[in-house]
Design goal:
- The complex is a heterodimer.
- Chain A is built from 24 helices and 18 strands.
- The radius of gyration of chain A is 27 Å and the shape is globular.
- By secondary structure, chain A is an alpha/beta fold.
- In chain A, strands 1, 2, 3, 4, 7 and 13 form a six-stranded mixed beta sheet that branches. In chain A, strands 9-10-8-11 form a four-stranded mixed beta sheet. In chain A, strands 5-6 form a two-stranded antiparallel sheet.
- Chain B is an all-alpha fold.
- Chain B has a single domain, classed as MetI-like (MetI-like fold, Orthogonal Bundle).
- Chain B has 16 helices and no strands.
- The longest helix of chain B is centred in the middle third of the chain and has 32 residues.
- Chain B is flat, with a radius of gyration of 25 Å.
- The chains are: A alpha/beta, B mainly alpha.
- At the A-B interface, helix 1, helix 4 and helix 22 of A face helix 3 and helix 15 of B.
Chain lengths: 564, 328
């Protein structure tokens, strides 16, 4: 090798080494330090574009020289779609109208999202404004973050949002769920339509096998058995199951099979009907009866045996493939224009119909329990200390104004939607139907809609869940008909469950509970009155379930739900 | 690491180099001169050393939160000390012994089953005379390494699902009852170990192949001239030639015996198989990370690190005495 070449190689090596070092040592890219906005000054700024009494136009001197940076973390409405692009008209409008630089970061659903929030909290790096997601209980997440001193009270910010308070924070019971020691520690947003899931059955299969609509658990079992064994789709293969579902990682049977236990009066983890001796539903003798029945279904192989391992995505691949005859499903996941075609294409003659609460097992059966609140959104202490609270309030108030509501909920008028003569959103008459707000390619531009924008007003609900005619079978479909049926069944109110604080050994307790429940359900552990009683004793002895029940009673007594 | 490291000859050289009668100043000067002579190599070392310093050594300071009640707002130094509270919480967990047993079983099964298969595959590839076939086998066996465990779950469900898995379809066609491989306590461990071997064996052969290529071809030629069969050459040349690498990998694996692939278990396990599938890392994720008990998670990490260090020291000492091979 010549001297020149050697020198060149050496210089190249040094350059490589230095590049690596610089890359390793370089700090993570951070936003330009946000200018702090004096609270008093910000509070006097116009709160919204449609405030009942429009404040005077701000003087040029009221506007800070530099926009305030706001980082928002929230789950996406459409998990299949990405975040809005940097040149999104929403960012531009927010910058121009509110003098805010919004950075919107989508956090994953499920435990991944919770991990992201926890990791950021541990590093004291929570964003300015974020969705306090939790797989067990969002209120518990707010309690944890408050204990760590990482979030700030938002009582003062609520006063800066008169319009949003009317449309989004108008349920004092919901807001109270985020109150800790008398302080409002998070906003509780409007929940996605409550009681929106239900049991549906393949009517075409019933007709083919000459079966009548079941009304009791015994009849339902007979139908499920026939769906499994009598080739209801007529394809000559043994490839169907009476009932399909999946375990959602919560407690016991999870939400997908809760209707089964609801028929026995115990759809929730807690026994809400037993106010005199409130505790876990497993203590109720009816729970044991329901479990015996559930085990019978499993042992008869009328439930898809993969239910303990598959997740929601896999479940939603399977039912449009015609694998199940009965299932518990969300009305929109079942019947909305974006979701139903997969099933319709495979089975143009297929027909799902809603089933009511199954009767006969106990005197007071339930369809399921409902306790869902809207998303909890918190302001980080760091952001509050930097004076960003009023800016966050300004953003939220704008989101509830006509301009923000339509832009972030439906897109650009005339391009993504139109307003009909009644002021309702419609996609009729759009020059490019692929630009319609509810077209899947447009989902990225309205990602915040379910979390922060929608308020469930009647026009909005009609726009979100319109009736339609299916492409392949030309069948009229009405998602709202399913919703109305589901939501008017008899549900057990378990909203107060949000007040129960998780025990410190939550992970061990939940594992012990679920592991034993599924062993009993799947038949890997003998289920007799004796083994069940042994399990209940072990629940107390091994993982202190009784201590958690005691603490839960206290939580509910303190909140005035139970008598002391 | 040289295959001669730890041998008596190397020890003699070391002793000679460290003569006590050489003044310190002169030894420093010699060292500086040697470093200057090889300055380009030292310069290249800076990047990896900086990486280890920043990402591996400086964070050790934060491990003190294992003994503290960590408050993010107060920071690592400001959080109050709580002694061994978090270690006690882990040791007193109802599942402590089960977690240790599961973790060690998975680790040892991978070591005992996975390593010989990788060595056999490396020897087979090395001995292959057909370049195309060799490249094909290497590519095919390396590929699964690049699949994530989420993808692997999809593949495993396609094979093992009791409702539609290919293997269960074959069992049903043969008149048998489908087996719930992924939810059966009798089968889950086998699925974990075998799927790991399937995914990682090809990739593991790289080190052994590199060691085999480092053996002088003269040795093979001489053995061939002496009439040694192919098996004899493998037994007397190839295997002894890669013993240092085998010892090295075994020692490093022993140090990580309480580390099992978190992603794999997290993706594959489900409630019915917790009793045979739950490992320390999945417990830490549920109890420490999801339940916001970062001090507890750190305490368990520290516990694993100490056990790993003790195992490495003991195994290194045993390897030095028994096989005259060691890490240090």
């Amino acid at each position: 090798m010549s001297t020149k070449t050697t020198r060149f190689v050496k210089i190249a090596l040094i350059a490589c080494a230095l590049t690596l070092i610089i890359a390793a040592c370089a700090p993570a890219p951070t936003a330009v330090p946000a200018p702090t906005q004096p609270a008093a000054a910000a509070a006097t700024q116009p709160a919204a574009t449609v405030a009942p009494t429009a404040p005077p136009a701000p003087k040029p001197t009221d506007t800070p020289a530099k926009p305030v940076d706001i980082e928002l973390w929230a789950q996406a409405t459409s998990t299949q779609a990405p975040a809005p692009p940097d040149d999104w008209v929403g960012y531009k409008t927010i910058r121009e109208k509110l003098n805010l630089n919004l950075k919107y970061v989508i956090i994953p659903t499920g435990q991944d999202g919770e991990t992201k929030i926890n990791a950021a909290a541990a590093a004291n790096a929570l964003p300015d404004f974020f969705q306090a997601v939790s797989t067990t209980n969002a209120r518990n997440k707010v309690i944890d973050l408050n204990k760590q001193g990482l979030i700030a009270p938002v009582d003062d910010l609520l006063k800066l949002m008169p319009n949003r308070a009317k449309t989004h924070y108008n349920n004092p019971a919901s807001l109270a769920m985020a109150k800790i020691d008398g302080k409002q520690m998070a906003f509780v947003e409007v929940p996605n339509l409550p009681r929106r899931e239900g049991v549906v059955i393949r009517k075409d299969w019933l007709d083919k096998l000459g079966l009548k609509m079941p009304t009791t658990m015994d009849e339902l079992f007979a139908v499920a058995k026939a769906f499994t064994e009598k080739d209801p789709d007529g394809n000559g293969k043994n490839d169907t199951y009476g009932l399909g579902g999946f375990f959602d990682g919560t407690w016991g049977q999870g939400n997908r099979f809760a209707f089964f236990f609801g028929a026995y009066g115990v759809p929730d983890t807690w026994d809400w009907d037993n106010t005199s001796n409130f505790g876990l539903a497993v203590r109720n003798p009816n729970f044991y009866k329901a479990l015996v029945e559930f085990r019978k279904w499993n042992e008869s192989k009328v439930i898809d045996p993969d239910w303990a391992t598959i997740n929601r995505d896999e479940f939603r691949i399977r039912w449009p493939q015609g694998r199940y005859g009965i299932m518990w499903e969300d009305f929109c996941a079942l019947a909305c224009v974006a979701n139903y075609p997969k099933f319709d294409n495979n089975f143009p003659n297929g027909e799902w119909v809603a089933l009511p609460t199954m009767k006969g097992a106990v005197a007071k059966p339930y369809y399921n329990s409902y306790g869902g609140l809207g998303s909890f959104f918190a302001v980080s202490k760091k952001a509050a200390d930097a004076g960003k609270g009023p800016a966050i309030a300004k953003l939220l108030e704008w989101m509830a104004s006509p301009e923000g509501y339509y832009l972030l909920g439906f897109g650009v008028e005339g391009v993504n939607y139109k307003l009909d003569k009644n002021g309702a959103v419609t996609t009729d008459g759009l020059s490019d139907p692929t630009k319609a707000w509810n077209h899947e390619s447009m989902a990225r531009f309205t990602q915040m809609r379910n979390q922060l924008i929608y308020d469930n007003n009647p026009n909005e609900v009609l726009a979100r869940y319109p009736d339609f005619v299916t492409d392949k079978s030309k069948k009229p479909m009405s998602p709202m008909a399913f919703y109305k049926f589901f939501s008017t069944q008899t549900w057990q109110d378990s909203t107060a469950g949000n007040l129960i604080v998780n025990p410190s050994n939550r992970a061990d307790l939940q594992r012990f509970y679920n592991e034993n429940f599924q062993a009993f359900a799947l038949g890997t552990k003998p289920l007799t009155e004796q083994t069940w009683a042994d399990f209940l004793k072990a629940l107390d002895a091994n993982v202190k379930a009784n201590a958690w029940e005691e603490s839960a009673r206290k939580n509910l007594q303190d909140a005035g739900i139970l008598k002391k | 690491m040289s295959q001669y490291a730890g041998t008596p000859a190397v020890a003699r050289v070391r002793r000679a180099r460290a003569k006590p009668d050489v003044p310190l100043a002169m030894r420093v000067q010699r060292l500086a001169r040697a470093m200057w002579k090889h300055r380009w190599y030292y310069l290249l070392l800076i990047a990896p050393l900086t990486y280890y310093l920043i990402f591996r050594y400086i964070p050790i300071w934060n491990a003190q939160i294992a003994f503290k009640d960590f408050f993010a707002l107060k920071g690592v130094e400001g959080s109050p000390w709580v002694g061994l509270q978090h270690f006690e919480a882990f040791f007193n967990s109802f599942y402590f012994s089960e977690l240790i047993v599961n973790t060690v079983i998975f680790s040892l099964a991978r070591l005992i089953l996975g390593m010989p298969i990788a060595i056999i595959l490396a020897l087979a590839i090395h001995e292959s005379r057909f370049l195309f076939f060799r490249s094909l086998v290497q590519t095919v066996t390396y590929l699964p390494h690049f699949l994530s465990w989420v993808i692997m779950l999809g593949l495993l469900l396609g094979l093992l699902s009791p409702s539609s898995g290919m293997i269960n379809e074959m069992i049903k066609a043969a008149g048998g009852q489908p087996i719930a491989f992924l939810t059966s306590t009798a089968w889950f461990r086998q699925v974990v170990v075998l799927s790991d071997i399937w995914k990682e064996t090809g990739w593991s052969t790289i080190l052994y192949l590199a060691a085999l290529l480092g053996i002088s071809p003269d040795l093979y030629e001489a053995a061939e001239v002496d009439g040694a069969s192919r098996w004899r050459r493998i037994w007397h040349i190839s295997l002894p030639g890669i013993v240092p690498v085998i010892v090295l990998i075994t020692l490093l694996r022993l140090g990580n015996i309480l580390d099992v692939s978190f992603q794999q278990i997290w993706v594959l396990y489900s409630v019915p198989v917790y009793s045979v599938g739950d490992i320390i890392d999945t417990w830490v994720y549920r109890s420490g990370v999801l339940d916001f008990q970062f001090s507890l998670a750190t305490a368990v990490g520290l516990f694993k690190g100490v056990i790993g260090l003790i195992l490495i020291l003991v195994a290194n000492s045993v390897a030095k005495r028994v096989a005259q091979q060691s890490l240090f």
